[in-house]
Specification:
Shape: globular
Largest sheet: none
Radius of gyration: 20 Å
Distance between the termini: 24 Å
Number of strands: 0
Helix content: over 70%
Oligomer: single chain
Structural class: mainly alpha
């Protein structure tokens, strides 16, 4: 039976990937949720784009610096010297992920779901093709190789996303005569992020608890089981993210009836989906 990777290498990559997801979950809550909320007016979209990508970049920079300077302490606490190595790759993937996450939220805001599908397809498709190549050539995948594949896939997604969504990525740095103030963006983002960050910690940092108590081998065994569950979790997140721009639009129009209707349809869709998944499993 072909072994492409082992539990140790997969465990190390899982630690890296979850830390990256943790950083960008916080960055998205603080930096990008306002992109959906404050963009009902076409005239203010360039300014909101500028505010949001600045906030996202600032949060990602601060968190990257924190983990970079804490890598020695983290490797000691979790008794895994390789943590220092994987953390050193965080700035590279973060630099590529900032435009990727921004483009994803732009696609949601503009209801460009087909362009969003193609952008994500470029990411997962590139990753799948490379991994299939490694399987076909009977090559061993180390955690560093998996990180490189992630970076290449992210770059491919960014390139295609820019091509498909470039006309919506307008920026404005003239702060005069604008109805939206930067402090409004900050207040909304911080208020929204409190609940989001509390949900992000157990969802992304649980592997570090496994690492602390049982070691890297068990992280590698735990990761596939969690990925199976994440399929269900991501279904919830996908449906929520798709309807969120519509809900914000209805709220701005004080159309409570439409809000109730779309939420009811979302719940019905999720219940049916969960039943089908349960039957399949």
């Amino acid at each position: 039976m072909l072994t492409v990777t082992n539990s140790v290498e997969l465990g190390l990559f899982t630690l890296f990937n979850n830390l990256h997801n943790f950083i960008f979950s916080i960055g998205s809550y603080i930096g990008l949720q306002a992109l959906l909320h404050f963009s009902t007016d076409e005239k203010t979209k360039p300014l909101v784009n500028s505010y949001c990508i600045f906030n996202l970049s600032a949060v990602i920079l601060v968190l990257n610096l924190f983990f970079f300077f804490s890598q020695n302490q983290l490797s000691t606490i979790f008794n895994e010297p390789s943590i220092e190595v994987i953390i050193s790759y965080l700035p590279i993937l973060s630099l590529l992920s900032i435009p990727r996450y921004f483009l994803v939220y732009i696609a949601y805001r503009e209801y460009k779901l087909f362009q969003l599908f193609l952008t994500n397809l470029a990411y997962f498709g590139t990753m799948s093709v490379i991994i299939i190549y490694f399987i076909a050539t009977d090559s061993f995948l180390t955690n560093i190789t998996l990180i490189h594949i992630n970076c290449i896939s992210c770059a491919a997604s960014v390139i295609l996303g820019i091509i498909l969504l470039r006309k919506y990525c307008k920026f404005c740095f003239n702060l005069k005569d604008n109805t939206i103030k930067y402090i409004e963006i900050i207040k909304y983002s911080l208020k929204f992020s409190i609940g989001g960050i509390s949900m992000t910690i157990p969802r992304t940092l649980d592997v570090y608890f496994v690492q602390y108590f049982w070691g890297i081998n068990y992280v590698g065994l735990y990761a596939p089981a969690k990925t199976l569950f994440r399929f269900v979790e991501d279904l919830i997140n996908t449906v929520y993210t798709i309807i969120y721009p519509h809900i914000m639009k209805y709220f701005s129009e004080n159309d409570v009836v439409s809000v109730n209707q779309i939420v009811s349809k979302m719940i019905s869709l999720l219940i049916v989906s969960f039943v089908l998944i349960l039957i399949f499993l």
